Backbone:
């Protein structure tokens, strides 16, 4: 069975992330969505909220597993015995950082390769940060994230922008 690990912060999961998960199945039989707590990014949602939103958003996609991973991605890959990392590549601006991460992960775990997938054009501009910003000012994000994520964002920002 071919397995891919799709790591990220997913704060929160967007329609762009879901598009990448679906596309991954062109290559892999099973996809593990590996959620990093990433406290340095000061996430809006705690790790369990993020996992719950991912679970809900992917519940109709078979062969998806969701796990939390702490520490280095390369160490997690070794522990799992999985050799492929999936990352979405939206624009040239993503490339430099993604290139660095792919090579660093390969340096740390010689057996691991990163596979880049391009999201559908309609999601190519989407980032979790931009969505949080729009939602923080009461903007409409319903076409950009799953309904329950939009609901969580509304609740989170009801008290006004952060
Ligand atoms: O969704 P993101 O924020 O772009 O995901 C980034 C993530 C979680 C994949 C990256 O920060 C990561 O792999 N973190 C774990 C720590 C690690 O392995 N760092 C070395 C690679 S830069």
Residues:
């Amino acid at each position: 069975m071919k397995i891919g690990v799709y790591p990220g912060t997913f704060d929160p999961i967007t329609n762009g992330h879901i598009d990448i998960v679906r596309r991954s199945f062109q290559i892999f039989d099973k996809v593990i969505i590996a959620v990093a707590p990433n406290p340095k990014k000061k996430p809006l949602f705690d790790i369990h909220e993020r996992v719950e939103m991912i679970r809900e958003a992917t519940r109709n996609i078979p062969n998806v597993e969701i796990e939390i991973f702490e520490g280095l991605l390369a160490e997690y890959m070794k522990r799992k015995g999985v050799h492929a990392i999936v990352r979405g590549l939206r624009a040239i601006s993503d490339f430099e950082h993604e290139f660095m991460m792919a090579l660093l992960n390969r340096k740390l775990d010689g057996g691991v390769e990163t596979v880049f997938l391009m999201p559908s054009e309609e999601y190519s501009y989407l980032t979790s940060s931009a969505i949080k910003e729009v939602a923080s000012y009461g903007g409409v994000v319903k076409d950009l994230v799953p309904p329950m994520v939009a609901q969580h964002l509304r609740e989170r920002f009801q008290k006004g922008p952060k």
